[in-house]
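Form 12-C: Joint structure prediction
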Amino acid sequence: MLPQTSPDAAPLYVRDAGDPRRRERALDDLSTGFRRWRLAASLARLDIRNRYRGSVLGPFWLTLSTAIMVTGLGLLYSTLFKLPLVSYMPFLAVSLLVWNTVNQIVGDACTSLIQSEGIIRQMPLPYTVHALRCVFRNIIIAAHNLPLIIVVFAICGVLPGPAALLAIPGLLLITLNAFAAAILLGMICARFRDIGQIVASAMQFFFFLSPVLWKPELLGTRQAWLPLNPFFVLIETVRGPLLGTGPSALIWACAILYTAAACGMALAFFIRFRGRIAFWV
Amino acid sequence: MAHILADRVTIEFPLYHVGARSLKKRLMAASRLREDDSNRIVVAALRELSFAVAPGERVALVGHNGAGKTTLLRTLAGVYEPVGGRLEVAGSIGSLIDPSAGMDADSTGRENIILRGLFRGMPEEECTAMAAEVGAFSGLGEFLDVPVRTYSAGMAVRLAFAVATLMAPQILLMDEWFLAGDADFMARARERLEALVQGADILVLATHDMSIVRQWCTRAIRLGGGRIEADGPVEEILGAA
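Section 2 - Result
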């Protein structure tokens, strides 16, 4: 028999309802959870494999459907907006891909804890692992779309310069937001099962409200209001650098501000309600 | 030293999704919001349980279905946080509560063993070593590389049992599922369990099988309606054999 015991089973743990030490326990959950990212990554890989089991294209179906969307919408809207196809197409491809990723993350975040119900009620695992699993899963899916961007850029003759590397901090911000969403929405949706539906319709609303299909310049002087839309700000931190229209300092500041707000809110919720999650799922 | 100390531990399950508390209704009946906390429908699963378990004790939890046996095991394992009282558990915990916890039906037996190792926080090389040992013990042979979805119920129990019992915890929490399995396997399983039980400082076992209780346990706690009805040596609680 292998001589091993779980390193996570603290030799002593005390649960005192009169002195819950919520902050300490939540921070401990986060640090243990991040140290066990390997488990989350393995679970995420399994999720992807199981979801597309027996499918020929697997996650590339999403790439294909986005490719069709980009072609169709590109032809239509470049005519409607009277924009040259070669300048509109790269914009649309990047916009749609980033939006799809954000949309999927938000939708998936709503079930990050509910779908791990079986595990949550059987073993004391850090909840952070379930949130990380959700984030990793979406990163893997999003990565399948990269070839599409390269193809569109090659066809339209767009060659992003070194400034395109600024998209990486943008992607990092989105990832941070994804984690915050997986914790925050995961908890709220586990408690109130209606929120998932509300979030889904809100996302549809934001799709049309955000400059995904249309260029922000079309708003004219009202562009000034756009930074209030967190989805626009986050999309722009990735789209701007890739298209060579580097986002302004204001956009970066807003993006960092919104991310900090999301993380702060998620942390506050996590500290306050962490102990209740097992009863909610 | 391993020990368990429970002082008026209370667990209540709120009934959220029975209609009374959906957010929709809350939004519609916002005027009743303030009554909310007192009006919450809760099921008292464990009510002010106080007990202490010292090293070397073998405790049986007995009682009817719904008495709170499994809930108490899960609380000891750290799944549920008490809403009242204080619980102190010292020692590494091994739980045999649900055989299929963390099993992925689409993965092969071997992949599931490695996954379980990761759940326990073991490094990957150890997981692979564990897969070899579990594979040998379970006697699944070539089925080890077939998805668990295709297993018969007996084979699934074998795999679950072999994976779950490969540990050396100080505190062993056990539900009675492990008694399933075919006769040939049960003989080997019994041997493994007895070794595991002997190696552990503390055993907490929830069961309906009184012969197991008499054989393995030194102390019995009878639960009823979430309370301790009786607590003492096995003969005293169950009556002389």
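Section 3 - Comments
The longest helix of chain B spans residues 183-199. Residues 168 and 196 of chain B are 7 Å apart (CA to CA).
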